[in-house]
Amino acid sequence: MTLIFAHRGAAGTYPENTMLAFEKALEVGADGIELDVQLSADGEVVVIHDETIDRTTNGSGEVRNFTLQELQSFQASYTFNVGNRFTPIPTLREVFQFLTTNRLVCNIELKNSVVEYFGLDRKVFELIQEFGLSDRVIISSFHHRSLMHMKQFAPQLEYSPLYGEPLFQPWDYVRMMGLSSVHPAYRTLDTFTVQKFAENNIAIRCYTVNAKKRIKQALIWGVEAIFTDYPERAITLKKEVD
């Protein structure tokens, strides 16, 4: 049965990568949430997608140049109408505290393809251990070498490489990495590719699946999970397909 992951929370209708978006994902019945992590100037693991704060907050500048206190002074929901609620950039610790109140699975994308963020992987792992969430966390990244590095010191976690362009026999590549799941862009998939991943016992979680036609096709394929900005829409369609 295909799982529904709220991409950056319920990002289609609420400010992405905020506690509000994660809370709404839980409220509508998502199976999991997806989020992105980087490091603040003072080494805190913060939840934000872009390497700059320009697009998603009322501030400007690179994430790595602000302390946590400075980052959390910006309004991360300024492009959404959320009333008078102040919505800051959350820390991964805050998200994990939220996860202790429910059973959501959490996919953490390491945003280290542009900025290296030395030590990000170890800080993430330490938080996972602290909260006892090893069985509810998936680590993904477009930086596949960093996934393999983290796998060396934290082999008990699940790792899934992200990719956005068609690859030659990607099932062989994932097997070579010793991994059992993969996160491809939806547009890279077709029936043949889905079948080959299945033959190789590799679970597919594809992104970012928003259009109804694509959601239905992913459900018909029976992929392990989809990442969507509209979890409520996907859950409704899943009921129809089932």
TrEMBL record:
SUPFAM superfamilies given in the database record: PLC-like phosphodiesterases (SSF51695)
Entries under InterPro entries matching the protein: GP_PDE_dom, PLC-like_Pdiesterase_TIM-brl
GO biological process, one term: lipid metabolic process
Gene3D superfamilies given in the database record: Phosphatidylinositol (PI) phosphodiesterase
Domain annotation GP-PDE: ranges: 2-238
GO MF assignments: phosphoric diester hydrolase activity
PANTHER family linked: GLYCEROPHOSPHODIESTER PHOSPHODIESTERASE, CYTOPLASMIC (PTHR46211:SF1), GLYCEROPHOSPHORYL DIESTER PHOSPHODIESTERASE (PTHR46211)
Protein name, per record: Glycerophosphodiester phosphodiesterase
Source organism of this protein record: Mangrovibacillus cuniculi
Lineage of the organism: Bacteria, Bacillati, Bacillota, Bacilli, Bacillales
